[in-house]
Every structure is written in structure tokens, then in C-alpha cells.
Design a protein that fits this description.
With 146 residues, the chain is mainly beta. It has 1 helix and 9 strands; from the N terminus they run βββββαββββ. The chain has one domain (15-145): Pnp Oxidase, Chain A, CATH 2.30.110.
């Protein structure tokens, strides 16, 4: 029905596209926290004057991608490119949220992303949990759309 607001979308159905990494499948995504600095300005000439706030620079936490560890070294190799200062390390990353029918309803685009952190979950003989591989991506820009 036209004009009807869309209902909530489950967080369990999504796709992650990492430029240059074919078939990258992730089981968990932590979208970054986006903030804008608050710059206080005094209005008027007195010290007791009320302040007004203006927006400053934007800041983002890392985009965190996790998956079960496989024999593929693609994420490790990408992190090594960042560690070694490879100028070709930057990639576009797109996270698409899907509805129940698998149709994208929202997308977040991260420009010039690179892995700032690579980690593995602990190896533990007391558990049968899979080893998880996680990368935390730094990026230059973030945009949301459909």
C-alpha cells in the first residue's frame, strides 16, 4: 500500500561486498558508530553568555567483519598489504541489509577501506567453537542508502 511505512527488518540477513575479494562471506557485521564533533561558540561579548553548538568534523569507529576461519588467507593478505604500506590496499566495501525475500532494503558504503586490525578467536581445547577470523576496517567515508 503506498504511503505505508516499511516494517522492521531482521539483522540476520545481509551481504558484504569487498572490492577485490571474491566470495567474501561474513557471519557477523558490526556497523561503525558515526559521530560529529560539537564546537561551542559564545554568542555576545560576555563570559556568561549562552553558547551555541555547531557541527565539526565527523568521526567513525571501525567497521568490524567476522567469519569462520577457512584455509583462505585473503583477509590476512589484505591486512599484510596495509601493514606493509601497499598503496593499493584501499577497497570499497558495501554492506547490504536484506528483507525476508532476499531483496536489499538498505546499504552502507565505505570508501577507501583497509584492515586496521586482524585477529583470531582464542584456540581452546575446552570448547568446540569454530575459530573466528575478524577484521576491523578503517575507512575514509561512510554513506547510507537503499
Amino acid at each position: 500500500m503506498p504511503g505505508t511505512p516499511p516494517g522492521p527488518v531482521a539483522a540476520s540477513s545481509f551481504l558484504v561486498e569487498v572490492g577485490g575479494l571474491p566470495g567474501a562471506f561474513f557471519s557477523r557485521v558490526e556497523l561503525p558508530r558515526a559521530t560529529v564533533e560539537e564546537i561551542a561558540h559564545r554568542s555576545g561579548g560576555g563570559l556568561a553568555s549562552a553558547t551555541q553548538l555547531s557541527p565539526g568534523q565527523s568521526h567513525y569507529s571501525h567497521l568490524v567483519l567476522s567469519r569462520r576461519l577457512t584455509a583462505s588467507l585473503d583477509l590476512w593478505t589484505w591486512w599484510k598489504q596495509a601493514r606493509d604500506g601497499d598503496p593499493g590496499v584501499h577497497r570499497e566495501v558495501v554492506v547490504r541489509l536484506l528483507d525476508g525475500a532476499g531483496v536489499p532494503v538498505m546499504a552502507w558504503r565505505f570508501g577507501s577501506a583497509f584492515p586496521a586490525v586482524h585477529r583470531l578467536s582464542p584456540l581452546d581445547t575446552a570448547t568446540h567453537d569454530p575459530v573466528m577470523e575478524t577484521v576491523e576496517l578503517a575507512f575514509d567515508s561512510m554513506d547510507a542508502g537503499t
